[in-house]
Amino acid sequence: MKHVPPDQILGPGRRGVLSGIVGAAGATLLAAGCTPTEASSAQAPGTASASAGGPTPGVMTLFGNPEFNFNGLLALGASDQGSADVGEVLTAVNAINKAGLSAQTYVETFRKLGDRLMKTPEGGRPDRETTRFRALRASQYYAQALFFVLGSRDPDSEEKLYKACRGAWDTFCKLCDPAPVTAKVPYAKTSLPVWFFRPDTSGRRRPTVILTNGSDGQSVDMWTYGVAAALDRDWNALVYEGPGQGQMIFVDQVVFSPRWETVVAPLVDWLTARSDVDADRIALTGLSMGGDLAPRAAAFEQRIAALVAMPGCLDPWQGFGELREILTPNKEETNNVWNKEVVPQLSPADAATVKKRFEPFSVPAMLAARQGRMFTDFYTPATLIESLNITDVVGRIKAPTLVLDYDFEQFYPGQPRQMFDKLTASKEYVKLTAATGAQLHCSPMAPRQHCEVVFDWLQETLQGG
């Protein structure tokens, strides 16, 4: 690939390079060109963006910065399934805006909210159900803080914040009735943490959905985008953290794998060994970048009976915009351009975004970010992301497939339809729209609508209803 001058890499206002940076269920772009320090001029919480050029077109504006706004919308929408509370989220939003929007104020506010919920309220004696859902909401708020911690004054607290998020999730799970079965499913030289949710302990064989997260979501998001809906419909649901996700990246330091079938296959092995799983009705969903991972797995794991890509994604690397122009076949040349021409021109906010986007693909990048430094090897994680391209394998998928798309899809625009067109199996394409408030990547304001579309299709496809 040709050498690109730094002014062309960075684009107007030093933001062109970041305009396509992509994340999964918990991220957005800096494309609108609004930095955290500019967010003081944001509209009041609860008001709509003035135009399609606003921070998040056609949706509620909580923060003037689109990255923070998208995450805030995810938290607000999660209240529908009990994994957040409208009043708590909006109070936190107001406090952050009053203090001045920044990674620091965002992290501090949501971390303290999680801490408060994990403590017994003064003078109160919460029952089991209250304690359970306080822990679920705490996990959500810790996850909100976790997403921005690398841009805060204490980036080295990332692992501690993940453990707080995971601890709250585990507390919630233990208090469920019935509690999910937990296990460590062998994978390569390590193991995958799993939580197997059942409607009851009768042992009846049921259809089961394996819920695949994206590149920066946490397990609490899987409650919002699948577990609760599955249990309501008398399905089992399996939540797991794979390489590049949750414990696997933040603690075990295992990055994403382009061969996601090697992740899903042991999960299917584990499920089919259970008498309460209908082995002929195992579905697989993929949220955010999981819309690339799950189809890759289904292309090679033939025991998957139905697949849902939310949204469909053929090539995550396309979502990194002009950053892709830095990558050449030569590692030394690539890294020289990165370190000498690009990194020195990144603002602190842009640098924090880049660190977050790359950490699931590079342990050295993650460890450097925790020390407040930018990674120096761009080539290695970039080539890993590039290898996630599934364009040439989608035609192998035999399972009936639902491909979701969204109005104003920020990260993979056009890719859901491209995936749908390449599928040769039985297939359906559904676009969730602004007309019902379900726009933007993963419908952050409408997770219940999102789940209705997914599970209505699964029920009909697998005759589970």
Characterization of the model:
- This protein has 465 residues and is of the alpha/beta class.
- Helices cover 41% and strands 13% of the residues.
- α2 (66-78) runs antiparallel to α3 (86-99) and α7 (219-232) crosses α16 (447-462).
- The protein is globular.
How far is the first residue's CA from the last residue's CA? 52 Å
- Low-confidence blocks of residues: 1-53
Strand content: 5-15%
How much helicity do the residues have? 40-55%
Shape: globular
H and E string: HEEHHHHHEEEHEHHEHEHHHHEHEH
Strand order of the largest sheet: 3-4-6-5-7-8-9-10
How much is the average pLDDT? 89
The helix/strand class is: alpha/beta
Number of strands: 10
- CA radius of gyration: 21 Å
Major sheet attributes: 8 strands, mixed
Number of helices: 16
Briefly summarize what is shown.
By secondary structure, this protein is α/β, with parallel strands linked by helices. The protein has helices spanning 6-10, 66-78, 86-99, 103-118, 128-148, 158-174, 219-232, 246-250, 261-272, 290-300, 331-342, 348-358, 363-370, 379-386, 415-422, 447-462, and strands at residues 47-48, 60-61, 181-187, 190-197, 206-212, 236-240, 277-287, 306-310, 401-406, 427-432. It has an 8-stranded mixed β-sheet, sandwiched between helices. Strands 1-2 form a two-stranded antiparallel sheet.
